[in-house]
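Review form for a predicted model. The reviewer records the input and the model, then writes brief findings.
Reviewer: anonymous (R2)
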Amino acid sequence: MKRLERQPRWWALREVIGSAAPDGSPDREAVAPPGWGGTVEHMKEHEEIENPWALAWWMRNKGNKPHYKERKRKKGRSGMLQTDAETIDSIVGEVVTAKRETVKKRSRGTCVFQSTHPKVNDNKDHFPMNDLAQASNALARVMQYDSVPSWYDGTLKGLQAAVRRGVYGKYPGLKSRKEKREGKGKS
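Model under review:
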């Protein structure tokens, strides 16, 4: 019984490579191992590598990992290969860039200074107080400021007073704890 010759795995689809076939036939096509397309593309730039597909399969079988990501490509209207981003940008244009610029803002819950507060300059929430620990942390942090932060439009004393008002308004027990600790709450 004649032994069937098995074709190596790297001879398959995608790109015609001409004389790289062992028998010299140009009708075979080579494919990179899954995930190795980007690495094979970079190997093609080096003249000393005769068959980047075979080298990629050999490296994969030895346990190596690819170092360059494979670019996904689609055929455009003109028949040329384009990356997905180029295709989307050419079709949709300004709408895509406008959607990229609008980022979903994360909500930090209840804050002393919400991003919409008139004295906040950077459109971010400051001094969250969703629970008792965050509220006491807000009081401690605001007292550590030596000067007015760049995001606040006002005075340092005004900032500290506003944080105290907000925290003690939501958690009145914090004020009574402070008074007991300092001895003012004793009768």
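Findings: The longest strand covers residues 73-75.
Further findings: Confidence is low (pLDDT under 50) at residues 12-19.
Recommendation: see findings above.
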